[in-house]
Amino acid sequence: MEKRLQNPSAEVVLACLSEKYLKNEVMLDHHCFVRIISGEVKIIISDTSKVFGPGDAIFFPRHQLSTVIQYPKDNKAYKCVLIIFRNERLKDYYSRNRAHENIERSPAVKSYDKHPLIESYFASLLPYFELEYELPEKLLALKIEEALTILRIIDKGVDTFLADFSEPGKIDLADFMEHNYMFNMPLEKFGYLTGRSLTTFKRDFRKIYSTTPQRWLTKRRLKLAHYLLSEKKQKPVEIYREVGFENLSHFSYVFKKQFGYTPKETLNDVA
Q1: Are 80 and 52 in contact (CB under 8 A)?
Q2: I want to staple 3 with a disulfide (CB 3.0 to 4.6 A). Which of 14, 20, 244, 253 is the partner?
Q3: CA atoms of 264 and 134, how far apart (whole Å)
Q4: Domain range annotation of the chain
């Protein structure tokens, strides 16, 4: 369920999920500021992951490839408020406000400790979701600008994201793939994020790995799965999504085909 302050291009959203578990491969077109009300969310970027819960505030930049897993906690559904910073608003904002200079780029997904400005801001938004009409554009613009101002007060480094309007350029393909192979997304997106067309991506990939992207991705994901099962003693049901598989039975099938034994046998040290 979602409540939006403005449709169809909502920039402020109250999201509530009834599903017990929801996993998505995420690459946002716009920066997003999130406040979690209930439930938990696990965000996986490359080989790192972090869990956020009620009261946490998170800044999620555009074009950041990640796995987002949302689920209930303490018998409460996952619920959050999202503020979406669209490029046209950001360009207007920074035409009137100078970005902080010489700030080093910080970790991609950022979380913030409780702060009076954050607390009061999100508390002020909740009553608006009960309105039976669209929030006037002038008021919506003020709330978006208020969020930007608060973020820039508590985190000067956020300008390295908010004031950057560039698109992905051609980058080192091997380095990118080694850090992002577990994300289950179309090859077109892998190409886009490395600054290549699909044809160029496939051509460059074969030059480096002497195989197709599909075959390499499957083997690399299975290698990670084997490590998590044998060394970290995680259960198959806990890891198959995180290593890039959408279906547990398919994961078990290709795992056994690759190694000659099942994920459960790996976990139980039968192999």
Answers
A1: no
A2: 14
A3: 53
A4: 2-162, 173-267
**pLDDT, tens only, 127-184:** 988 888 888 889 999 999 999 999 999 998 999 999 998 877 888 999 999 988 988 8
What's at 57, amino acid-wise?
A
- The CATH number of 173-267 is 1.10.10.60
Residue 269: other Cβ atoms inside 10 A: 9
Q: 199-226 burial by CB neighbour count: b if 16+ within 10 A, else e?
A: eebbebbeeebeeebeebbbebbbebbb
Distance separating alpha carbons of residues 104 and 151, to the nearest angstrom: 16
pLDDT tens for residues 104-118? 666 678 999 999 999
The dihedral of CA 190, 195, 201, 205: what is its sign?
negative
CB 84 within 8 A of CB 29: no
Distance (Å) of CA 251 to CA 1, 22, 261: 31, 18, 12
Centre a 10 Å sphere on the Cβ of residue 30 and count the other Cβ atoms it contains.
Answer: 16
Q: Are 79 and 52 within 8 A, CB to CB?
A: no
- Cα of first residue to Cα of last residue in the chain, in angstroms, is 45
Which CA distances in Å does 239 have to 24, 67, 97, 190, 243? 14, 12, 45, 22, 6
